[in-house]
Design goal:
Length: 289
């Protein structure tokens, strides 16, 4: 679906840029054909082709321009026709028809674009938690990291993994497991700042990217989340704990490398007994249970 939409956008851009005058030329040819065919006929229906083309590929401005071209072309054609065939109502009929075609094409195009935008958004959002999914997070985080690297600003990343989540599913069922995931997603959203980017990376793993935050700030955030989780109660949700890994940088860095660092910290937290926060390359004394 999305490959098709990207191809369609590519085709739109290439054709529109390559043949900007094709539609007006088409209108002129149709008008010439009508002017040299005095017998009554329905050849004016051919105006719909350049109108559709221009409306789809050039939007509202193109629609207005091509309808104006049709108005001029049809008026000139009628001047060369016999008086019996050049009645004013014929011009009005053509203008009403082509204007209606342009309006309908424009409305359908706008609806199509809105639908595509909604589908793009859904493809980047986790339906259970409402957070970004891995695809959406990777795209957003790559852009944020690029800006932070250019400005030499600090940026931090924290990942959270629910301790013994498989056991929760086994003992309470997957419905309860889904409630746990949604509960933790709400906590992350509540504790995160407006500029932070929270996501569910998959399974029971979450991530929060924090522009402008250093490692100490990331550790403090992770600990706030763990304390809030320990103090929270939610009907139908069993008591859960999380392990967290954090890392931060002020140097330009690729998202893949930053994810690798924070994963190492998270795995260290799990090996150390879970239910704790570990910073990448942090000395053992800084590991807080």
């Amino acid at each position: 679906m999305f490959c098709s939409s990207r191809c369609w956008q590519s085709v739109r851009g290439s054709r529109a840029g390559r043949w900007p005058c094709s539609a007006p030329v088409g209108v002129a040819l149709i008008a010439y054909a009508l002017a040299t065919s005095p017998e009554p006929g329905d050849g004016a229906i051919l105006y719909s082709l350049p109108v559709l083309w221009t409306t789809i590929f050039f939007g509202l401005g193109g629609a207005v321009a091509i309808v104006a071209c049709v108005a001029v072309g049809e008026a000139v054609a009628l001047l060369f026709l016999p008086a019996a065939s050049a009645y004013p109502g014929r011009w009005v009929d053509v203008m009403v028809s082509t204007s209606a075609i342009a309006v309908v094409a424009r409305v359908l195009e706008c609806r199509s674009q809105l639908l595509l935008e909604r589908l793009r958004g859904e493809a980047r959002t986790d339906p259970l938690t409402g957070l970004l999914n891995r695809r959406g997070f990777n795209e957003h985080a790559s852009r944020v990291l690029g800006r932070a690297g250019r400005d030499s600003r600090p940026i931090a990343l924290a990942t959270f993994d629910i301790d013994h989540f498989n056991l929760i599913n086994d003992e309470h069922g997957h419905v309860v497991g889904d409630r746990v995931l949604a509960h933790i997603a709400r906590l992350l959203s509540n504790e995160a700042r407006g500029i932070d980017v929270a996501a569910r990376l998959g399974g029971e793993e979450f991530a929060v990217l924090m522009p402008g935050s250093d490692q100490a700030g990331a550790e403090a955030f992770a600990e706030r989340v763990r304390r809030a989780l320990a103090a929270s109660t939610c009907p139908g949700v069993p008591e859960v704990r999380v392990s967290a890994g954090v890392t931060a940088t002020t140097a330009p860095i690729e998202l893949e490398l930053m994810m690798d660092r924070v994963d190492q910290a998270l795995y260290t937290a799990k090996r150390a007994g879970r239910n704790r926060t570990v910073a990448f390359d942090a000395p053992p004394a800084s590991i807080a249970a």
